[in-house]
């Protein structure tokens, strides 16, 4: 296995495990989701199935890399595009709700 394939494989498994750990901590109450803006808790908890999709893609990508199966490319592309989608979606949500930065006149003048 090439070194780059090893890094991608490791990062795929680490990504899947990290997202799964986050949800395990949320489900067990060790990572409380606070209502930082109205509706945030419902928004955050709405992504359970989508994140499970990311976990599945991450583990499939890593597994197919280990097996040297060409399907790894397909799952890797699906994983990458889903992560970019969710990242941009989250960034815009944070910008629109003021979680990232308060762009209002009051926030800009402080």
Describe the structure in brief.
The protein has 110 residues and is mainly α.
Protein architecture, described:
The chain is mainly α and 110 residues long. Helix content is 74%, strand content 0%. It is built from five helices and no strands. Helix 1 runs antiparallel to helix 3 and helix 3 packs antiparallel against helix 4. The chain is elongated, with a radius of gyration of 17 Å. The model has no long low-confidence stretch (mean pLDDT 89).
Q: Distance between the terminal alpha carbons, to the nearest Å?
A: 54 Å
Report the portion of residues in β strands: under 5%
Q: Give the SSE order as H and E letters.
A: HHHHH
How many strand elements?
0
Structural class: mainly alpha
Uncertain spans, ≥5 residues at pLDDT below 50? none
Specify the overall morphology.
elongated
The count of helical stretches stands at 5
Helix content: over 70%
- Report the C-alpha radius of gyration, rounded: 17 Å
Q: What is the arithmetic mean of pLDDT? A: 89
Feature tags:
mainly alpha, 5 helices
Tell me the layout of helices and strands:
Blueprint: H1 3-27, H2 40-45, H3 48-66, H4 71-97, H5 105-108
Helix pairs in contact: 1-3, 3-4
């Amino acid at each position: 296995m090439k070194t780059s394939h090893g890094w991608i494989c490791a990062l795929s498994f680490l990504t899947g495990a990290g997202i799964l750990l986050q949800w395990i901590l949320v489900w067990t109450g060790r990572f409380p989701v606070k209502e930082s803006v109205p509706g945030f808790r419902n928004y955050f908890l709405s992504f359970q199935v989508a994140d499970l999709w990311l976990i599945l893609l991450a583990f499939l990508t890593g597994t197919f890399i280990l097996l040297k199966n060409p399907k790894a490319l397909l799952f890797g592309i699906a994983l990458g595009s889903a992560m970019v989608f969710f990242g941009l979606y989250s960034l815009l949500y944070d910008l629109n709700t003021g979680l990232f930065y308060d762009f209002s006149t009051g926030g800009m003048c402080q």
